[in-house]
Structure formats: C-alpha cells, structure tokens
Amino acid sequence: MRLVLVWLLICVTGFVGNPTLAQAQMLPLSEEPVTSDEPAFPLDTAGRETPRGLVTGLVQAMSDEDHQRVALYLETPNRIADFGFRQFHILRIETALNAAARFETPAELSIAPEGVLDDGLAPMRERVGTLTVADMQQPLLANRTTLDGIPVWRISAETVEILLDWRSSTVTGLGTVQEFLLGLPSGPSVFGISARDAIILIGFAALSLGLSWALLKVRRLVSRVVRRGRMSTRFSRFIEVSEPPLQLLIASLIFTAGISYLGVSMVARFQVVWIVELAAWLAAIWFVWRLIDTIGEAVLASMSRRGAASMFSAVSFFTRILKAILIVVSAAFALRALGFDITAGLAALGVGGLALALGAQKLIENLVGSVSLIADRPIRVGDFCRFGQTLGTIEEIGIRSTRIRTLDRTIVTVPNGEFSSLHLENFSRRDQFLLRHTIDLRYETDARQIKAVLSGLRDMLVAHPRLVEDTPRVRFIGYGAYSLDIEMFGYVRARDWNEFLEIQEALLIDVMHIVEGTGTGFAFPTQTVYLGNDDIRPLLSLKQRAA
C-alpha cells in the first residue's frame, strides 16, 4: 500500500512539474543559452532555441490540437515547398508521430542552443528521438536553421518526408491488443491525454507494480528454500529491506519497455515517460540510501567486534556525508531534467565552496586528521601512549579532536589535525617488554664472587618461562666510580605493563638472593678520604727560598 501511495505521489508531482507543460507556458524564460560562446539572439516566441524547446513545444502544440502551431516546428520538404503545409499534412504527421515516434525524455534532450556537439552528427543536427518504420528503427532528426535572424531548431525535412509517407503496421503478436485498445472511445482530454489513454496507462502501471511484486515474491520464496533454516546473512537482510525501491525500479523498467505497445498517443507517452523516469530515479536514490545504511551498519558491527567503539561517531559522520552528497547530486540531476540551467549554479557552488574551504581550513584539517587516524589506526581508546612530551591514556577519538587522560589525571584535548602529525609512541601495542638493569657490586668483591654472580643471574634468566628465548644476557661491563657494574638484559612476555612489573619484581628479588648468596653486596655511592700527619716544614722552606 505504501508503494502504491509513492507511485501516485510521483504521478501527481510529475504532472504538476512536467517540463512539457511548464515550458509551454514560460518558453522564453526556460530556454536561455547555457554557454557564453553563443552570440545573443532575440528569443524565439515558439521556444525553438534548443532541442528540448523544439520537442516540448511540438508536444504541447499537438496536445492543444493547434495544427497551425505544429507546423512551426517542422521544416518544409521540397515536394510541398510551393504551397506549404495543409491541414491534412499536419494530421498525417501527427498520426505518424502518435503511432511510430518516440521522443527522448526531457532529461536526455539538450538545453544548450548548439545541442550536443559530440554525438557524431553535424554541428547543426540533432537526434531527438526514433521512428519505427516497417519494424525498423530510424533516427528522428532535427536541424538548426536561421529564420528572420533567429537560430531555431525544427524537425528535419527528410524526417517530415518519412512521416508523410508513413503507413501503419502492426507488431507480430501485439496487433490484436493494439487494435482493441485503439478501438476504445477516446473520451475527454486532460493535459492532452485522452481518458482512454489515461485509463490504459494507469492500468498498465498497476500491472507493472503487480509483476514486480510477483518477481520479488518468487525471489523471497526461492531464498527461503535455499537458506532452509540457516541464519540470514547481512546481504539477504539488505535485499529484504531494499525490496520497496527495487519493486518501484523494476515496475518502472517494465512500464518503460511496454508503453510503446499500448497504442497510446505520443503526447501521453512523452509526458508519462518523464514521470516514470522520475520514479526510476527516486527508486535508485532510495536503493542507494538503503545501501549506505547497510554499509554503515556493517562497518559499525565490525568495529564493535574489534572494540573500536570510539569510531562510531566518525562512521556516522561519514554516512551522513555520503547521504548529503547523494541528495545534492540527485537535486542537480532533477533540476537539469526540469530544464534549469545548473551551470551557473555549479560555478557559484565552486566559488562558495572555495571560500568556505578557506574559512574552514582548520576544520577541514581536523577532518582529514580524523580520516588518517581511522585509516592508519595508530592508537585506540584505552591505549597508553606518548605524544610529544606528554604521557597518557586515550579516552576518546572524536571527529574533531582526541582526548587523553594524563598521568596527573588531567584531560588534554588535541585537535586531530595536530595529533595526527605528532610522533606517537604507543606503549599498549608492545609485544614484549624490555628488562634492563645495571647491578652495582662493591669494590671489595673478588673475581670468584663476580663469576658466581654472573653464573647465577644467567641461570635465573634462562630458566624463567616468561623471558623470550635467546634474548637474556648478563655481562660484567666495567668499573664504575664506586662499583663493579654488571648489566642484566632480556625481553619479557606480558599482557600489559602491570604484569611486566610483577614479573620484574620477582626477578629483582631473586637477584638480591643471588648476590647475598655469593657473600658480596650492593655498592652505594662512597668517597674515601685519606688523612695524614706529615711534617710540612720542608715544603714551607722551599716556598720561601723560591720567593
């Protein structure tokens, strides 16, 4: 039911905002040149300055049954150049267009006065649709010529020749259906669409929705059979929540593919195809929106498993940024499809964006720093690290800044732009802890005792289960100012700093037992002062003699 309401809302919005109707009422205002290279010309009262203006004006004239105005959008072929278009010529051309023509949608038609220059056609030539002649597709061409000093676009003379010579033909297997539909009474018209065409289109739209619903229903049943009681995956849940936009998108594709075989007029097809194109765009945007949500949820779940809960705000921020970009891009395409010139708007956005970037330079720098912290992950919440001259524990990694709890229990907030450029030393990421101490023995220690201490320390380190193999080292490294120095070196396996301190404490106590067991002791800073009772009188006599 909700999807049907969305479909009806699109239809109402499409009829109100249909560029065919809007441009027919404001032709001079909606068809301004889009490039500054074009010289200034007076505006054409029929709105033929652009390929889109040509098609929308022609469709509106046919909708109003204004045969005289229809002739304004056609080049005169040579065979009737002497006397011009007669009413029966226009009626024949309209009949051929209604039955065999398919114009490009407003979004596909160029709003530039010079048209599309890279389409492989001559510069003053444009393809605005296709014609079905004897079951063959032929291009529906338009030429740009000058009338009364004004460059205008009109359906080419050779295309008009084909329309004048067109004869109806049926498509195998569909002729009976088309004949039946065409045999129904037309009834009154609204916006150039007869009651018969409106009923056919509404019925086919409902049929398209039903077919798309049936296809997704079959997919759901097959998925349940294949899964057969197993847990649903994230992908299957994404498909389930994305069924409404998928149903609308599939219905739009079915409707677009089948509308040519319904026997409705070209005016109705042109106006309704624009609405269906709008529905397809909305369905695609809806689907991408759900896709962004699903990806964001998957990333958040992955971070939650890894204990990176601090990144939730950053992921949510980037999800909102992607959605904002999606909205802006969709709005730009919608304005382009409605016939608005977005070139000037994009230029203004470029200048405004540059000014905003200069004004928000620090903010952007912090955002880039956040991205680098998320991508490189040098730290996580709870890590103990040194940044600059400060030691502390990471408490929060935000979008703009990072908060650290220092050893003094104060909070330091560092902008991410600055934080990401600092030299970071992460102590929590250590796989091994360094055990390195210098043991100072008294100078009274003899060589036998030093050898006994060295042997005892080596045996202690090698036998300890938490020391990494091949890393323990004990060496007599020199004579100090007041001690004989022995270095003890090795790497300890520990989960964290506290466990390392516990292991180190036990090792240092064992060192005390080994030193005491050899009969020596630890040195402490000492200074030896020699006191003498020597006779200094000879020295004084020498000093006097020298003077």
From TrEMBL:
How is it placed in the membrane, per its record?
Answer: Multi-pass membrane protein
Q: Which residues form the Mechanosensitive ion channel MscS C-terminal domain?
A: 438-516
Q: In the UniProt record, does the keyword Acetylation occur?
A: no
The reply to whether Membrane figures as a keyword in the UniProt entry is yes
Q: Which GO terms describe its molecular function?
A: mechanosensitive monoatomic ion channel activity
Q: Which UniProt keywords apply?
A: Cell membrane, Membrane, Transmembrane, Transmembrane helix
Q: Where are the transmembrane segments?
A: 198-218, 246-266, 272-292, 312-336, 342-360
Residues annotated as domain Mechanosensitive ion channel MscS: 363-429
> Would you identify the family this protein belongs to, as annotated?
Belongs to the MscS (TC 1.A.23) family.
What is this protein's record name? Answer: MscS family membrane protein
Its source organism is Marivita hallyeonensis
